[in-house]
Design goal:
The chain is an alpha+beta fold and about 375 residues long. The protein contains 15 helices and 11 strands. The strands form 3 sheets. It has a 6-stranded antiparallel β-sheet with strand order 1-2-3-4-6-5, covered by helices on one side. The chain is elongated. It starts with 7 loop residues before the first strand and ends with a helix.
């Protein structure tokens, strides 16, 4: 059912419709006695006749009732109105991380701060056996003071709950989904860690680490394709941060951090070093400004000024390397060309960015 401003729902008066996402519609409401403004979430009309969705909504209420953390949107109460379950939560004055980064560039310091708070929330939730399963920028709220609130536990899994998902049906957002979830395995704390890694990579570089022309290609790439290290795309990103993100993005859950707290610790760098301190205040690539141009546009029609190599030779390396790692090959080659004029060095170092011994060998054999 939909509500209109001024309509009474239990002890609450509807102020305005805030939006819809996940399982339900969200309204700003005012408590009739305390006058406190809250957020009320109720199932969307087309979900109320689906027993699985009703049960999932009920479980979200029960999960949130066990969580009390400053970085997790807090449940106030829940009640039935005309036979339909409604949950009332704290009203968060702010915007999603997705909207924030589209509106204005953020700095490295802000990115690490926001995702550090997400990890703090996950340390707590995982400690209670709760796996979020849908970490992404649109489920991360940022208040005006910079506080993070993790929202939408609609598909969260607890160590006491049974799986509601039908066989062959994936839950979550494909761009942020871990390889094990795509493979049909049960999500765990390491799966949330992978989604945090994807989100932080996107903040740092302006690009998703895994892409594809359709959902199938994206899912297959999550399973089979190793992303290029973040600092190779965005040079202002310290290598310590890049290494932490890439570890979180390991295909094998066992190769990621043992727990979210270790990931958090890896992101807490020594800000006293001048290079790192300067990087913290540098704006990261915006979502729309980090698009990769064709290799010829990057290399130009003249030899690279810092290497003295013929542009055609560099473009040939880019073309061959791109067969294995995609368009980001031009960034890798440009960085290597700035370090040395030796083509053997460039080929040798470029090969290290290719996953798989056979492919690396084929790339090196392709040099004439």
């Amino acid at each position: 059912m939909a509500f209109q401003p001024g309509e009474r729902v239990g002890d609450y008066e509807v102020v305005t419709h805030l939006g819809a996402g996940g399982l339900g519609a969200v309204y700003e409401v005012r408590h009739a006695i305390s006058n406190r403004h809250e957020a009320m979430k109720i199932l969307l009309p087309d979900q109320t006749d689906a027993p699985e969705m009703v049960e999932r909504f009920r479980r979200e209420v029960q999960t949130l009732a066990t969580l009390e953390h400053p970085n997790i949107a807090q449940l106030r109460t829940a009640f039935y109105h005309q036979g339909q379950l409604a949950m009332v939560m704290e009203l968060i004055r702010g915007e999603t991380l997705k909207d924030l980064r589209l509106r204005a560039p953020i700095t490295l310091s802000q990115a690490l701060n926001y995702m550090g708070q997400v990890l703090e929330a996950l340390v707590y939730a995982h400690g209670l056996g709760v796996v979020h399963r849908d970490i992404k920028p649109s489920n991360i709220m940022i208040t005006a003071s910079g506080a993070v609130k993790l929202v939408d536990f609609g598909i969260a899994l607890t160590d006491k709950s049974t799986e509601l998902t039908r066989a062959g049906y994936l839950l979550g957002s494909v761009n942020y989904m871990s390889p094990e979830q795509i493979g049909g395995m049960k999500a765990n704390a390491a799966s949330d860690q992978y989604a945090v890694g994807v989100t932080l990579y996107e903040l740092l570089t302006g690009l998703l680490p895994i892409t594809g022309a359709n959902n199938y290609e994206i899912m297959m790439a999550h399973v089979n394709t190793a992303p290029v290290a973040a600092h190779l795309i965005a040079p202002m990103v310290p290598q310590e941060v890049s290494r932490a993100v890439m570890r979180a993005l390991e295909k094998d859950p066992g190769r990621r951090f043992a727990q979210a707290g270790e990931f958090l610790a890896a992101l807490k760098m020594d800000g006293g070093r001048s290079a790192v301190a300067a990087a913290h205040t540098t704006a990261l690539p915006a979502a729309s400004s980090a698009a990769i141009r064709p290799a010829t546009a990057l290399m130009g029609s003249k030899p690279h000024s810092s290497s003295g190599l013929e542009s055609l030779a560099l473009e040939d390396v880019v073309r061959k390397l791109a067969n294995y790692i995609g368009p980001v090959a031009k960034i890798v080659v440009k960085k290597l060309a700035a370090q040395s004029e030796d083509l053997d060095f460039i080929y040798r170092e470029a090969a290290k960015h290719i996953q798989g011994e056979a492919d690396r060998a084929a790339f090196l054999r392709a040099r004439k």
